[in-house]
Write a structure and sequence with these properties.
The complex is a heterodimer of chains A (about 325) and B (about 200). Chain A is built from 18 helices and 7 strands. Chain A is of the alpha/beta class. Chain A is globular and about 60 Å long. The termini of chain A are far apart. Helices cover about 55% and strands about 0% of the residues of chain B. Chain B is built from 12 helices and no strands. In chain B, helix 4 packs across helix 6 and helix 9 crosses helix 10. The radius of gyration of chain B is 20 Å and the shape is globular. The chains are: A alpha/beta (about 325), B mainly alpha (about 200). At the A-B interface, helix 1, helix 2, helix 3, helix 4 and helix 5 of A face helix 3, helix 5, helix 6, helix 8 and helix 9 of B.
Chain lengths: ~325, ~200
């Protein structure tokens, strides 16, 4: 079992969590506080460049220089271990640390850029960041404390068919560091189990991409949504109620586009989408709107919560609320 | 398919790929046995004529026309090929390097021009954002409530106890300075200015 820390952690902000599913961040903080993980969020930390990087807009040198700056921000407050909420941040930061440690010429170039920018104190030395021992996905930090998670479960979420979607950029990029399976990934399934919920385990398409494909979602939408649709169909074939995620980009692809894909395919999927930290927070009894952040979801989560024995103080369906607001705006 | 072989014994293209900053030190392109595992599980291959096995073969045979092949833009960057390769090759990484070569040559710029506004927002705020054209598409596809979400996001974040995601001015200045000295600003200007 690899070393996984529970303190001195920089919780690395994600551009898509920020503006799409901020409830992933508040849920992560809520769960970290409950299970005793010591962490810090830093306003100086920049975006990893992820979407721009895989759209091929960013060059590798700019990406690793920004990573060197973020590594410095992490170390500066004594939170040298990074935990990401997004799988692409995870992959990009690991690759950046590898290049900075192993490629002397690139490292010197990066330090030259930092010097020219008046940031001499941010210079990177080989080994400052160990990609295997300092960079993690939040799901790994949670997995390491799963026994602690089990002690705080208050809401019974059994009775639903739950499946997992393991993000490609966690499982398949730096796969030597991946825990709980690469070709048959089970990290999320194990975390659900810590909440008392057994998932359906393996299903056809379990390890297939969400279909976002970076540029594909925007410039090749038919192909992108076809891949997502196939996976949704595989989940429907198993009567899945809830799909658990570990990456905001995957969650967007499924949650935002599920109604449109259903319309195209002439089927209703009725699958709820939650990040694993949101799921654990819910199981711990967190408020759906003040912590879990279900008000930013496209597929309303209220019908799921209505089925629980535990009463939640629910607003009307988000979809209804939103349509009301649109009418108000029109007036 | 028409191929151009400048020199049958040359390994220039594969050497250029391996020398690229993006190439991992253990990138096993020479170890490729052309088994086709990569293509068999590739979402790009299932939806288009993109064929990672053939792409790697052409790189190994120094067939430089692969750089101009439209199909390289159909990779999903999901790295599934990487995770199943029995030889330690990484077709996804090779693909990203070929795309950069296409951008350097000029043709590839047309493929990325549509995302240039992401770079502008990164320089302005330290956080990239999806260009407005693609955002409008999303509002159309997801529904008008998606627009409301964007209008309300600051309030929702406060409700969740989260602070602003915009970086302090000093940090934004640092990032702008870095992106100037790293050559990204010049790259972005070239991308936006290209009418090729």
């Amino acid at each position: 079992m690899k070393f996984i820390p529970d303190k001195e952690i920089l919780l690395f902000k994600s551009c898509l969590v920020n503006v799409e599913y901020p409830g992933v961040e508040s849920s992560t903080c809520y769960v970290f506080d409950k299970i005793g993980v010591e962490y810090h969020v830093d306003e100086r930390q920049s975006c990893c460049t992820g979407l721009g990087h895989y759209y091929d807009l960013f060059d590798q040198l700019s990406t690793i220089t920004l990573a060197a700056r973020n590594f410095n921000v992490a170390a500066d407050t004594g939170h040298k271990n990074i935990a990401t909420m997004c799988a692409t941040c995870y992959a990009i930061l690991k690759k950046s640390a590898k290049i900075l440690n192993q490629n002397e010429e690139a490292r010197e170039e990066v330090n030259g850029i930092l010097d020219d920018s008046g940031l001499e104190d941010m210079e990177y030395s080989s080994g400052d960041m160990d990609p295997a021992r300092n960079i993690f996905h939040v799901a790994e930090i949670l997995f390491n404390k799963r026994e602690e998670i089990s002690k705080h479960i208050k809401v019974d979420l059994t009775g639903f068919k739950v499946a997992s979607h393991h993000a490609c950029h966690y499982c398949k990029v730096h796969y030597k560091d991946t825990i709980e399976g690469i070709r048959d990934p089970n990290l999320i399934d194990e975390l659900a189990s810590a909440c008392g919920v057994e998932t359906i385990g393996w299903y056809d398409h379990k390890r297939v991409t969400c279909g976002a494909g970076f540029r594909q979602r925007y410039t090749n939408k038919e192909a992108s949504l076809a891949v997502t649709g196939e996976k949704l169909q595989a989940l429907k074939d198993k009567d899945v109620d809830i799909l658990l995620h570990m990456c905001p980009n995957c969650q967007m692809q499924f949650d935002r586009y599920q109604p449109l894909i259903g319309e195209k395919l002439g089927t209703e999927f009725n699958i709820f989408h939650l990040n694993i930290a949101q799921f654990i927070a819910l199981a711990m009894g967190a408020d759906p709107y003040k912590i879990v952040g279900i008000q930013t979801h496209t597929v309303p989560v209220e019908p799921l919560l209505n089925k629980l024995k535990q009463p939640f103080n629910l607003k009307e369906d988000q979809s209804k609320r939103n349509s009301l607001k649109i009418n108000e705006n029109r007036d | 398919m028409r191929t151009i072989k400048l020199n049958k014994n040359s390994h220039k293209l594969v050497d250029d790929v391996l020398k690229n900053l993006k190439a991992s030190p253990d990138l096993g392109i020479y170890k490729c046995v052309q088994c086709g595992m990569c293509t068999s599980i590739c979402p790009g291959a299932s939806q288009s004529d993109y064929d990672p096995r053939d792409m790697v073969r052409r790189v190994l045979e120094d067939d430089v026309s692969i750089v101009d092949d439209e199909n390289i833009w159909n990779c999903f960057s999901c790295y599934t090929c990487n995770s199943v390769c029995p030889s330690g090759n990484n077709a996804s990484e090779v693909n990203q390097i070929l795309r950069q070569m296409s951008i350097d040559k000029g043709e590839g710029i047309l493929k990325i021009q549509s995302f240039a506004a992401y770079g502008d927002s990164f320089i302005e705020l330290g956080v990239g954002s999806v260009p407005s054209k693609f955002f409008d598409d999303m509002v159309k596809d997801v529904g008008p409530e998606y627009m409301n979400l964007k209008l309300d996001i600051e309030d929702i974040r406060s409700e969740l106890g989260l602070g602003s995601y915009i970086l302090p001015e000093k940090s934004i200045d640092e990032i702008e300075e870095i992106l100037d000295k790293s050559g990204f600003k010049a790259r972005l200007k070239r991308i936006k200015g290209s009418k090729k």
